[in-house]
Structures are given as structure tokens and as C-alpha cells.
Amino acid sequence: MDQSVAIQETLLDGATCRIAVQGTVAAGQSVESRLLGLVERGGQHAIYVYTHRRMAITAEDVWLEKVIPIAEGFAVEEVIPDGDLHVIGSDVTVRIRSEGDGLTVQLPFGSHTRTFLQEVSKCSTEAVGSEGIKQNGKKLAVSPGWSQDSTDRSAPRQSKLKPEVTTEMVRSSSVMVSNMASILSEPKFGLRDTIVKSELVQREDSYTYIQNFRFFVGTYNVNGQSPKESLQPWLRWDSVPPDVYCVGFQELDLSKEAFFFNDTPKEEEWFKAVTDSLHPDAKYAKVKLVRLVGIMLLLYVKADLALNISEVEIGTVGTGIMGRMGNKGGVAIRFKFHNTSVCVVNSHLAAHTEEYERRNQDFKDICSRMQFCQSNPNLPPLTISKHDVILWLGDLNYRLEELDVTKVKQLVDEKAFPELCQYDQLKRQMNAKAVFEGYTEGEISFQPTYKYDAGCDEWDTSEKCRVPAWCDRILWKGQNIAQLSYRSHMALKISDHKPVSSVFDIGVKVVNEELYRKVFEEIVRSLDKMENANIPSVTLSQREFHFEDVKYMQLQVEKFTIRNGQVPCQFEFISKPDEVTYCKEWLIANPSKGFLLPGSEITIELELFVNKSTATHLNSGEEKLEDILVLHLDRGKDYFLSVTGNYLPSCFGSPIHTLCHMREPIQDMSAESIRNLTLMPLEMSNNATQAEKPLEIPKELWMMVDHLYRNASQQEDLFQQPGLRSEFEQIRDCLDKGMHDTLLGSNHSVAEALLLFLESLPEPVICYKFYNSCLECANNYLLSSQIISNLPECHKNVFEYLMAFLRELLKNSGKNNLDVNILASIFGGLLLRPPPGHPMPDITEKRKAQQFIHQFLLKENNLS
């Protein structure tokens, strides 16, 4: 979340928050969060320090505490933390000080903090005027030397001062960033540095040795519960304290608030419960916490090892409905431990026994979409697979198949776990190389960890009587990894899952400083000899690429190889004159930049993907699948690549009124007809002089809704459980070609296709121009109904049709687990979207959109 937006809202015209970072400051025995914003006005700069609510979305969520001008005498210095548990292991602690005031703050280690400190170091040393800052109409106290002209337009306009907080302005301060803070803020990544680093990686074995460290890895699906019991039986099982703790949770919070707004107080509850239960024979520092809805991952390291942790980055990937919602997906923390790169992934994959293909797809999505910034901006982002050690934990949700509940329980009672594992979906999918290829899982010698009655060790006695399964798993990939234990922990009973843990001895590459220095010097000497000897040049295996029959949301990939000559080279795809990006929106080169040693080569993937933002112009023919890529070599020449393709038009991305005038499938129509109907203004659609009257609603929409009405009214978790991508492609083809009278695919796939269809509409069902009016009358049904009655006829028909369908679904809420709040939240964000250029909706706007739809789900309406 870009929290500079909240700060920007507190500033008057002429002042800009260039970047904001969230950190923590000590407050007695506890720590408190602060937002630091780098504010610019007229070439002058200051750091604005704010207290804030848990989620700082708007100006209403932040309170200005102090302003620290960047002027002569200003300093940012690294401080050595005192080592207690509030120390963020590899996070950087800095003291920002001036003559009259100061602040010691812990900032999260990573690329964003580096950028923040870099921006601070670049700022001018002249004082920033912060005169006339007002808080609730009152002027803040300012120190002598600062003007109190209340007309200053750089002052915050809405920020509120908490009663107990006083703000005293500091007078002056010299930009003097020291030691680690300097390294973090001003990295130098020229070609020479990149060459040296690459050569060091190539010769790593000559200056490192392997040393074993003990890792504890744990996973626990807590079923939305708070920590009512100690976690010591899980986290302190072994007598030997681990060097590193990797602790993951799923279903941390099952509330609608967490699902739709990613906000939960349970993050702090479980963090404290873990911290209090770590092994007592060692002192630990928290390295990082990352959470996506209910999926949370914590990383701790022994305090005396914290200095050996570096390059910490986090990532999140949602794989829930529409491929985004965070109720399912993964979070990850990557870091370097000494000279070994480690990636820890915590995932919660799709539920239900029959959905193993969806789980496979979730795994692949997490692997392809999870990316981590590198400290060197000239290098492409890292993926999960680009690490020496990968530890993957979580509720993977793979089940036991072909056996009934009685047989499974019998085999469990007999402790016949090897036999039972033969029916385990994960084992079968791994054997088929469909998922987790190259990963290892230890022998399972404990009973299934799901599903239990909460509060005891009895199997599920509910009406569903779930078949027991090993949902909760831990796998690994890499060299020098020895699993010492793999077990469940029956003593914990608050959830319907049992926690699982594994302890590993992992061989980590430790640097011998003397050998490292010798290798480094050899590389530099050899580099001195060859520098400026030649101009770099490469050979491309292919320069022309054609993508045949491109379809909506169906990825196509073409590959080519760059082979380097005898000079190290840095390459990057660069933008053409008068263009902002190096390629069109529907294309990406992966990687788009990188470094090649002499004689080496790299495979580049050109990925073509048409989505909602590009489909409409391709449907109409206003845009073509044509582009020229420019591959630039640092100190070398440019290479030009031609990319072409043909796009098959789709109902996805087509306007509602266009589809209402199409009685034939869109791919049976001529390109000219599609163009004319797509470009026809919405205002003309009601009065269009067509030979045939337009359809009341698009036939494609009717097919999907009718299918769901007939087949899915009682479908459990409808609109919450994702479908399969392969089935979406079948549904799309059926709608675009009119191949079948009935749609192919599961109910979940049809439901997701409906949501994707609504999301792809270039003009939403409730037209953009009514957006603000809808939010203003979200609690007034009469005014809301009047807005709907003013929609263009085809849009009004679609809205009424969808509301009638959703009300029918709610009549079966006892079976399908839907309620009015779920449907209002999902459809509120699709039917009522902010117009282009409008800021991303904050929580308040999302709730108003939800409330607007909520009204129509509770009342039978007839607006015609």
C-alpha cells in the first residue's frame, strides 16, 4: 500500500510527499508505528513524522507529530540496536537528528527503505518552510527562526493532532548519512561492479565453506481463532534451540473485514503468542513479518546471528477468486544468510477434495508471480526458484482420495501411514511431476492433521464428516539440507487442524574473509587489463516473432537466446523515442534486463497477454498486435526485434451496448461490424436505427447467469472458490464462438467467468459518471433507485437482471454459504467502479459501494 497518498492528502497545494516509509519507534516498554514522509516544496525538503491508524489510507488516518527540516546540521546515522525482541533483526535502525530535535526509528530492510534513504540523501540542504501548519484550526508550536505565516500553502490541510501530542519544530540540521545507512541509501551499481559481483558468484566455492545451522519450520491453520493456549508444545518441542524460526499461519482471520480489506487485529495477537513461545535458551530477533489476509509468515533469527542476514525482501500472491483475492495464495520472505540465498514460502491452496488441479494451478501461479527486487536495480527481479534453499510450508489442502472415511480412520488407528500415503493427492501429483517438481518431503509418520473437532482430538463429527487428510505440509528444495524431524503436535486443540513442524540442518555457505579478499583482488586486476579492450556484442537466435490466434487472458510465450561475445555486457530493453515503456501493454520481456559474462547466454521469454486494459481497443481494431523492441547493450549497439500477432475478438472487453447489438457470436462477425459497434457511442445505443431491436441484455451474460441459476443455486462457496483456468478458456471460447448450447466447466469456473466478464467491461454496469452520486446516496434506497432508473436501457436491464439473480442465490444461503455482505462486497467492486484517473478506492469508498449494492439485494425492485 502506498502510504504517501495519506500524507499527500494532509498537504496544501505546492507541497508533495515524494515517498513514505513505515517504521517503529520505542515508547517505554513497547514500540509504536510511525509514518515518515519526505515532503518537498519549492526545492526544499523536510521529513514529516506521523502517528497513524493500523491502515493509513486517507488523511483521516494520520496525525502529524513533528517536522524535521533537512538543512545544515541534519544527520541520518545508523545506530546499533540493544538486541531485545523488538529489534528487527536485519532491519536498519537510524537516528534522524537536528539541533533541536531527533528521532530514532527502525525501518524495514528492503528496497523501499533503500529508496527512501537514497531520496533523503539527495535532498537539498536548505531549510524547508513549515510555517503555518494547522491542526484542527490551531497553529502548532514552532521554534524561533521559523516564520508563522498562516498563509503558507505547504502546510498540512487536514492532519489532526492527537490531544496528548505536542509538535515542536526543529531549526536546522547537514546531510551526513553514515556507515550502513549510507550503503543502503546510495548503492553504486555500475557495469564494473556488476562484473565483479558476477565473477565472485562464479568463483564462490573458492572462498566459502559449509557450516550447518538449525532451522525450525512450522505451519498451523488456526481456523480464525485467537491464541487461547500456549504455543510452546509446538515451538519448543526440541531441547536444542534453533538458529532460525520460520513460522507460518493460515486462516488467521476468517472475518469479512479481513477478506475484503486485509485488516485484522489478530496479526498482533499471533505475533505476540509466537514471540512469547520461542525457545528460552536463546535470544531471538524478528527479521520480518508478512501477511496477506489470513496467510502470515514470521521469520526470527538468533540475535547473535542477525548481522549475517541481509537482502531481506517479501512478496505476496493472491490466487483466490479472479486470481487476486487473498483468501488463498502465498506469502514469502527471501534473504541471504551468510552467502546462501534462502526463500521461505507459506501458502494456502484451494480447498475441497476434487480440486487438486486447482491446487496445482495455485502452486504454479505463486511460483510465476512471486518476485523480489534485487539490490542492484540493473538486474531483473528474483523468483522463488532462483534461491539456493527453498522451504515451502502451509495448508496445501491436498486430500486422501479413493478411500472412504471409515477406511481412512482404520488405517490411521493401525498407524499404516505408508499405505495411506499411496492415496495422498500431493504424493500422486508430485510423482506425476504435475506440482512441486524437484522438491522433497520427508517421510510422514504422524496421523492426518485435518479435520478435528475444535477443543479435542476427535475427528470431525459434523454433518459433512470430512475424510481425514494431511493438508498441512512442509517441503524443501536445495543442497546440503538434512531433515532431523517431521511431526504434528496433537497438544494444540483450538483449531480443526493440528500444527506441523520440521527441523532441518542446513549447510550455509560462509565466507572466509582472507580467501575472499584474494579472489576479489584477482578479479579486479584481470578486469583492469580487459577494460576498454573491446565493444560488447551479442548474437540473437531470433529477431522476428509472430503470435498466432491470441485469445483473451490466454498467455502465449515465444523464446529466444542472447549469446554474448568476449566482453562482459549489460543489456536492457529500452523505450523508443516519445514512449514511456519499452513495450506495449500486452507484451513483456522476461527478464527485461540483465548481465552476461563472456561466452555466456540467456533465454528471454516474450510473454503476450491480453487483459481487460487492452482488449477493448484490440476488439475494435484501434490497436494491433504490433511492436518493435529495442535491446540496448551498455557501451554497445542496439538490436531491434519485431513482434506481431493476430487477436481473436472476444465478448470479454466489449461494451454492454455493443454486445446487445450482436445477435451472432462475436467471432462470426466481420472486423468492420465489430469495429462499428464497439466504437458506437453509448448515448446512441438507445436510439440506434437498427434493422433489429437490440437484445435486452448480452446473450453471453444470459448464458452464464442462466447456467448458474439452473445448476449452482445451492453450490457451496459460489463466487468465493476459484475455477480452473483451462475451464475458463473453454467457457470463453464457447461464448465467443457459440459452439455449444450449454457451458462447459464447473460451477466455480462459470461463476469466475461471470466476474471476469463484469470486470472487463470498459464501461461498468453503473456508468462511471454516476460513481460519486452512488456513493453519496449509498444509504438512501429511493435516491439510489433513481440513479439506476437513469442508466442507459441496456445497463439498467443488466443491473436489474443481476440483482434478481443474486436475490435468488440468497434464498439458498443455507446451502451455498452466501450472505448479503459477501455478494454486496464482491459485486459492489465490479458493478460500481471509479472512473479512470480516480484514486484507488479506499476502505470508506469500498464500504459505500458495498452498501449501495446491499440495498438492492434486500429489496425486490422494479425500476422499469
UniProtKB/TrEMBL annotation:
Specify the domain of life of the species encoding this protein. Answer: Eukaryota
Pinpoint the Rho-GAP domain residues.
Answer: 680-864
Which Gene3D superfamilies does the UniProt entry name for this protein? 2.30.29.110, Endonuclease/exonuclease/phosphatase, Immunoglobulins, Rho GTPase activation protein
Query: Some GO term, biological process aspect, for this entry: which one?
Result: signal transduction
Q: Does the keyword Membrane apply?
A: yes
Q: What Pfam families would the database entry show?
A: Exo_endo_phos2, INPP5B_PH, OCRL-like_ASH, RhoGAP
An annotated GO cellular component of this protein is: early endosome membrane
Q: Where in the cell is it found?
A: Cytoplasmic vesicle, Phagosome membrane; Early endosome membrane
Q: What is its EC number?
A: 3.1.3.36
The alphabetized UniProt keywords are: Cytoplasmic vesicle, Endosome, Hydrolase, Lipid metabolism, Membrane
Q: Where is the composition biased (Basic and acidic residues)?
A: 150-164
Disordered as annotated region, ranges: 134-164
A GO term, aspect molecular function: phosphatidylinositol-4,5-bisphosphate 5-phosphatase activity
Family according to the record = Belongs to the inositol 1,4,5-trisphosphate 5-phosphatase type II family.
What protein name is recorded for this chain?
phosphoinositide 5-phosphatase
